[in-house]
Amino acid sequence: MIPLLLLLLPAAHGIVELGTRPALTQGLEGVTTATTFVLEQPRCIFGNFSNAVIWLVVALDKDASAFNNSAEPGTPETAFQSFPNTVSAYMTLNATLASYPCPKPAGDITVLRVGSETSCATDVSRPTCNGPLPGPGPYRVKFLALEGSVPVAETAWSAPITLRTAKPLSSISTAGSGHSAGMIAITAILSILLAVLLAALVAMLFSCGSDSCGSSTFSKPESVSVQRYNTHHVYDQAAARL
């Protein structure tokens, strides 16, 4: 009976407001970067709206309350390419309920990285692009379920989400940099000495390539003739034996 009443609520009282609030995932590296952030998927939230398509609505914190739930995705009114200049909130990452089964099957990835598509960031033919976020924010997001073009259910807006920003060089403290400067000076001196040593070694190799470097003149030794001498006593001994 309760699920039936929930289905009738959108027609009788407008959109169903669910108590769930989207949140950043926990326990992962790089949950927020300069252009993206990672959300938990909306599992076990829209179970009573099996025919709906679930969209993610992304808005600047200051503009979230002004978002019109009747705005249709894929139109100039909600196009990523015009956010945040002329569009206060864009709609992206549409999925059916089958993409968010409950309970979660073992091994399933249950996160959504917002801002991960770069190829369509300037492609006006893809207004629902999940393109890189244009600044640090802060942003707020919510999930909105549509049946056709009719909004039937939504979550609450998330808490403000601020992306990472690079520190300007002027804000980096130079305290304690004396040690680093000394190391740099020592490294520079050693590099110069090594270069000088290498140049001297190369010069020595070139100079030693000639015949005069380290060479010595050797005269060919004269051949020594050895004459055989027959001693008289040898012949005398042979004659005596005869």
Relevant terms:
disordered C terminus; 242 residues; disordered N terminus; alpha+beta; 5-stranded mixed sheet
Overview of the molecule:
The protein is of the alpha+beta class and 242 residues long. The strands form two sheets. Strands 1-7-6-3-4 form a five-stranded mixed beta sheet. It has a two-stranded antiparallel ribbon with strand order 2-5. Helix content is 21%, strand content 17%. It is elongated and about 95 Å long. The relative contact order is 0.16. Mean pLDDT is 81; it is low at 1-13 and 231-242. The protein has helices at residues 2-13, 178-207, 232-241, and strands at 16-17, 37-40, 53-60, 89-96, 111-114, 139-147, 150-154.
Proportion of residues in extended strands: 15-25%
CA distance, first residue to last residue: 151 Å
Global structural class: alpha+beta
Written as H for each helix and E for each strand, in order along the chain, the element string is HEEEEEEEHH
Total count of helical runs of at least 4 residues: 3
Morphology call: elongated
What is the spatial order of strands in the main beta sheet?
A: 1-7-6-3-4
Overall average residue pLDDT: 81
Main sheet specs:
5 strands, mixed
Tell me roughly what share of residues is in helical segments: 10-25%
Poorly predicted ranges: 1-13, 231-242
Radius of gyration: 43 Å
Task: Tell me the total number of β-strands.
Answer: 7
